[in-house]
Amino acid sequence: MGVGPRYDGGAGGAGGDGLDLGGGQGDGAGDDAEALLRARLRLADEQIETPPGLWDRIRDPGTEQVPAVVPLSQRRPRMVMLVVAAAVAAVALGVWWLVRPGPVTLQPAGPPPTVKITVHNSERACRTGRSLECALRLANDPHAKYAERGNSAGRVWHGDALAARCVVTDGRMVRDEAGITSTRWYLVTSGQGVRGWLPGVRTRNTREVPECPAGVK
User: Hey, what's the torsion of the CAs at 203, 111, 208, 162, to 10 degrees?
Assistant: First the structure.
């Protein structure tokens, strides 16, 4: 690339390019050399041509996308977290396997608790023996007439131990031979498995018996 016309510096110059920077010609020669150097540099800069399309390529780098590169410093902590999470899950699974509950066996619900009560006959003559005349009736319905023909579930006698499940307090009023009345009726089961309602006047129960839920028969 040319840098302008060559300057020999006059007759008896210092060399091929005519530039003597050794300072041997005095102060005027040094200033001329510096001015000449600046002129040549400026001329060379003006003659440099920009390649065609360079600025367009700089402004529009194109649509090609450069794949994102995740620095190693970011990938490593993420991998460490994954490994730690997997280890924790494995430990938790092992602990659960060791302490896991055994198979649950559902036990059938047993019969409701009962209270033992004893049959009492107010007639002294019927407190011994088990004659039909001394039998006391268990009713099917505590709200029906006690003496009705169809309201009989079975017979009990004085001194029989019965299992009382519950009691109703609003049953039919019954009066015994001694004139004692009561509207309490006990849902009982005899030793022979007979189930029915015993009037409250036919026992001298002193133990608490829970009230029957609605609809119990």
Answer: 20
Average pLDDT over residues 89-93: 70
Taking the alpha carbons at both ends of the chain, their separation in whole angstroms is: 123
pLDDT on residue 80: 65
By residue count, the chain amounts to 217
Q: Bigger pLDDT: 184 or 68?
A: 184
Q: Give the separation between CA 147 and CA 144, rounded to whole angstroms.
A: 9
Residue 82 and residue 45: Cα distance in Å, rounded?
Answer: 59
Whole-model pTM: value is: 0.51
DSSP annotation of 25: T
Residue for token pair 């023996």: 129
d(CA 126, CA 134): 5
